[in-house]
């Protein structure tokens, strides 16, 4: 198979943390005096913490200074972390652990490429850190998806060319980041909401090394 490395997004691919982000942002919006819907939350997928706050403030038509934004982002993160600290291995999405083990036993390199600054903490909570050869998170990159920086950094750490990397992403910005980096990409979710990926999977339950080999022979 032509793929030598699999690069995974975290939120929405390995774990369903979007629901925790949503509650924390919704509570903040309520405090600021407006409603924040699940549809609004879709706009924040794959987007950095500060950019998410700016989108939220735009929705509420609220202006804040840079200093105030830092305080609000910090406050949202504290609330989000209350959920993260309660996470267990049960939060790992179905099929993920088996798929990672299957890849590893077939000699595939594995990395995490996430916009989240909390990625190392989350991997610790769900006991998956050991499954990744490299971890590149929101602390290590300066350009947000769809910029390919996060995935190119994974490839460089793994010492492989982008053309042999396969990215798994649930956000459109992440799919575009993979393509902008010259990588292969599988969309996790439906082609109703995502476009441009090579293939779409609803989750990892039915995916294994053998099927990947057929798709990328
Ligand atoms: C992305 C999520 O993975 O990480 C976004 O999809 C989130 O919703 C972003 O805002 C940043 O996360 P964190 O944990 O650094 O606030
Ligand atoms: Mg994601």
What does this structure look like?
There is one protein chain. The chain has a 6-stranded parallel sheet with strand order 3-2-1-4-5-6, sandwiched between helices. It is of the alpha/beta class. It has 9 helices and 6 strands; from the N terminus they run βαααααβαβαβαββα. It has 2 domains: 139 residues, Rossmann fold; 67 residues, Putative phosphatase, domain 2 (DNA polymerase, domain 1, Orthogonal Bundle). The chain is globular and about 55 Å long. The protein binds 6-O-phosphono-beta-D-glucopyranose and magnesium ion. Magnesium ion binds next to loops.
Attribute tags:
binds magnesium ion; 2 domains; 12% strand; Rossmann fold; binds 6-O-phosphono-beta-D-glucopyranose; 217 residues; alpha/beta; 6 strands; DNA polymerase, domain 1; 6-stranded parallel sheet
Give helix and strand order, one letter per element, not per position. Answer: EHHHHHEHEHEHEEH
Distance between the termini: 5 Å
Net shape: globular
What level of helicity do the residues show?
40-55%
- What is the rounded Rg? 17 Å
Tell me which ligands are bound.
6-O-phosphono-beta-D-glucopyranose, magnesium ion
- Name of the CATH homologous superfamily of the largest domain: HAD superfamily/HAD-like
- The computed structural class is alpha/beta
At the first level of CATH, what is the class of the largest domain? Alpha Beta
Q: Give the strand content.
A: 5-15%
Instruction: Please name the CATH topology of the largest domain.
Output: Rossmann fold
Count of helical regions: 9
CATH architecture name of the largest domain: 3-Layer(aba) Sandwich
**Taking strands numbered 1, 2, ... along the chain, how are they ordered across the largest sheet?**
3-2-1-4-5-6
Q: Which residue ranges are poorly predicted, with pLDDT under 50 across at least 5 consecutive positions?
A: none
Q: What's the total number of strands?
A: 6
How many strands, which pairing sense, and closed or not: the largest β-sheet?
A: 6 strands, parallel
Estimate nothing, just give the exact number of structural domains: 2
Average pLDDT: 96
